[in-house]
Write a structure and sequence with these properties.
InterPro entries: EutB, EutB_dom_2_sf. This protein has 5 helices and no strands. It has 64 residues and is mainly alpha-helical.
Length: 64
């Protein structure tokens, strides 16, 4: 992958809403342990605080 392609991919990823990862897993739940680690403990109440964010917005959030 070229540097130009990486920049383009990062831009696309940054604009994705966080909800995409729960609504449309890239790898099927049944065949991927990492997907199950994300989906199984999902807490809607805890996620509500960041539900409106994109990947880029979440990345920029202060952690404290």
């Amino acid at each position: 992958m070229s540097a130009e392609e990486r920049v383009a991919a990062r831009a696309v990823l940054a604009d994705l809403p966080l909800t995409v990862f729960l609504e449309d897993p890239v790898v099927p739940y049944a065949s991927d342990e990492v997907t199950r680690l994300i989906v199984d403990p999902y807490d809607a109440a805890a996620f509500a605080a960041v539900l409106h964010l994109t990947v880029g917005g979440f990345h920029c959030c202060p952690t404290r």
